[in-house]
Amino acid sequence: MSTTLFSSLAHGLSTLLDPFARCVGDPQVLNRLLAEVGVTPLTDTSALLAVVNAVAARKGGIDALDAASDPSFVSIAGVLDAARTALLAIRQLEHADTSLGPLQGLGEDLTTLLLIGSLERRAPALRHAAALLTLLDPAEEQPPAQPVIGNGRLLRDSYRVEKFHLDRLPALLRDPLATLQATYGNTLATQAAADAMADKLFPRLMRLLRSLGIRCRYGFQPEDQDYMGGAAALMQRALLVYADDALGGLAAGAGVVLTLSGGGQGDLGLVVSPFGALSGERAAGAWLISFDLTAGIQAVAWGRHGLTLLAAPGTVDVTGHIAATVPATAGQPACVVGPPDGSRLEFGSVRFALDTHLSASGKALTLAAQTASSALVIAPGDSDGFLGSLLPAQGLRANFDLGLLWSSETGLHLQGSTSLEATLPVNLSAAGLSLHTVHLGLHAGDGKVSAEISAGLSAALGPVKAALDRVGVDAVLGFPAGGGNLGVADLALGFKPPSGIGLTVDAQGVLTGGGFLFHDEAQGLYAGAMQLSLHERITLKAFGLIATRLPDGSRG
Length: 556
Fold this sequence. Notes:
ten-stranded mixed beta sheet; 26% helix
């Protein structure tokens, strides 16, 4: 069965708040939760329990909306609003009790604790992917916070907690390489610089691979150093990734060893040393992992001095591929964004891939996040009054494939385009309504990331023909300093009315002409002008105004 965005959001946010809501009426449970961020037991928790009750009430509202049988964009907004109120109360927790005044940042740390716990339960790979992309500093990399003493009593013991940097996401989309280099470094001029990069990069990559069920390890145990001999210095900061592991009961051992070679120790850059046969596929939970590497390679390195290749005679380049795929269930999309019976996005199988080609003449690296057999469905029930009158009862469905790719040659772009905007030809017709194009857009700016999937439509109503530009679904993800409905981020999602409507009239030569209506989303208005000709003798100018939302907020 496919999962809708509404059910995922509602269940996910309810689960996020659950550890806090379980403290209702129970000071001991509350003290245990506070202890996870270093707070020593409180004797009077009445003020905090009042906040707990308010959060639990909001969680109950989310659960009630989740139980409704007819989710819509309105119910999605209701869930997000309830989550925003609850998480704001948690973020401001230290202000609920004057005795907690010295514990600045307590509410923010609790919010982070809840988010990390929810990610660990629902999508551990996402947590580690965020760390690899520098959007999260793992707790194990943080220095312990200093204890807090008040009136001669320990108020808060030393603790560690993750730190989110989701505000880096817009920069990561605009210039991924520069954003990553700011954290990991961009030079391997010395071996010390290479070691520092390895100590930050490889453990994060290791934790991500392990969360996907791939066996790997970083470095070696100190007691094993005597067995390493002269290779100890090289293996001390090596990442070993096993495609097949004979010790784990598989038929043969195969994998790769990743090391960083800086100045003074070869100055080779990234060194990849495969072992065993690296070709095939294996299951890792819900994921299917496939991999392939040019045969006969003993070691390949790429750095500031170019390609270094140790391989069988005649091998002059290296091609590598690894992909992780979640197949769609037969007849069902993997995920649905929007109400299941309304305007929505349907995503088929999900795929992440890395492809590389190295040669003496250059290098090419491509990272891809793709969905196959996706669809944009525009239903009349979620549309405004004017658009609803144009759509057939069953709505319109446009199939497409969606992908976000980064290439070392072309940068970040959407599949089928050279930028983060793409318009795909569709050309579908149903009940007098034609769908010509699907528009995909991803934008990063002003501290926000916005996404749009919309369509270009045309329809005929008697002698009037209308063309609608970019109607569909849009979303905005912001990162306000005070947090939002996702804790450290704020999501807005809804139906996107058309940006404009072009009109032509041809009443059998009696009345002809055309014009354009502009859309004012804030007021729910379409306004514009037309020029009409009556019997080709009299020219008339007409002004149009359509209110899709009445003053009381109801549909026009």
